[in-house]
Design goal:
40% helix, Alpha-D-Glucose-1,6-Bisphosphate, Chain A, domain 4, eight-stranded mixed β-sheet, Rossmann fold, seven-stranded antiparallel β-sheet, alpha/beta
Amino acid sequence: MTLTLERDVIADRPIDEVFDYLSDFSTIEQWDPGVVRARKITPGKKAVGTRYALDLRYGPFPVSMTYTLSVLEKPSKIVVEGRGQSFTAVDTLTFQALGPRKTRITYRADMDFEGFRAHVARMLRPLLERIGTAAVRGLGEAFNRKPTVPRIGGLSSLLDRSVAGGLPAFTRFGYTWARRHFAPVVETLGGKTVVITGATSGIGLAAARMIAHRGARLILVARNPEKAEAVRRRIAHETGNDTIRLFTADMSLLRDIDRLADALMAEEPTIDVLINNAGALYPTRQETDEGFERSFAVNLLGPYALTCRLIPALEASGGGRIINVSSGGMYTQGIVTNDLLFQNEPYDGTKAYARAKRGLVILTEHWARELSPRDITVHAMHPGWVRTPGIKEALPGFYRLTDPVLRTPEEGADTLVWLAQAPEAGLSSGLFWLDRTPRVTHVFRHTRETAADRHALVQALETMVREKRP
């Protein structure tokens, strides 16, 4: 049995942008409700012969298929050929420029069913046609949607404040639920310079892969040069992005950060996105050789020092973005400005980490106010509970207890990459995000800081950076 669907879609976008977005067939999961997941499985740049693995659901029947890019004629035509068990498909997209910022997309899907699936397809033909129509409608909405200013939702705020109601959102099930409401992002990071710290494992590595796949000029900042070079090579091989660069620095040491900032400012006078991702949780109190408690140094002081130095490059981009990776653990702690180095009470690694991440959210709100006149937006996010080597090592008990519900690094990194890419993130500043949604920053009264606390924190950090001593 053969089923053919053909529809036209008008996109309010230049033809080259439309072609570039759709030539990456993995983006189909953003706009086709019949696609559960799509991923590129051929390493390198997309080209004729590039293969994609898709998980689809047509009615009650899950289907796994492999699609191969068979025609890639920029900017006029794309053809992908799919094969599954007793099911083949050919998707043909042709493009016609109707003006500088208007494109006609003609989308044709030819599906052939064999054997038992042919009988099922006959019975489900109306459903399959509705799914196909929904896909075309989703394609039109992807290109023509208008981004809106994000706001904290009443329901999410209520759940967060109830604590027990908010914790499920940290799990992989929370991500799966939130993902159902994600809007497509047709904007790419092509031509953008993105700096990310802590990119050799966990969330940072996942984010780096995703950012490179979206075409950014990616700069990896890592402590271990050998490990970082291996990561750089692997990401370049997988994505075909040959613009990835590497800088080494220990983000807990101010002297390394000064050296890094000097090199970046000399070689990259324009930076579009800075992602402060490097972080660690230490079970016992440690000090750097500069005299700073290590958790405070890497999770708060380091991001502060690097960001302050790179503000001119971010301003030069004409719309720079700063993204700070915090933690849901910060909900349990307020900032303690008279003991930032955790010297006056018995050390607790989880508390030290949470306090530093709380401080990073305070800085996010501070920078949002201070940098708004310079056209720089600042956001913080937390990734939920993620299965990473760092969590397994630092919190083995928590890891064992929560392992069945932990997110993948890619799920944890999703909002991080979205904040770097999506137009919505440029319409606001100073927010705290989970799963592409702004969240409240306090759920307990005792964690709220005063204006004096915020001022004291910034002044303390400024003094430490200036004098390079505790």
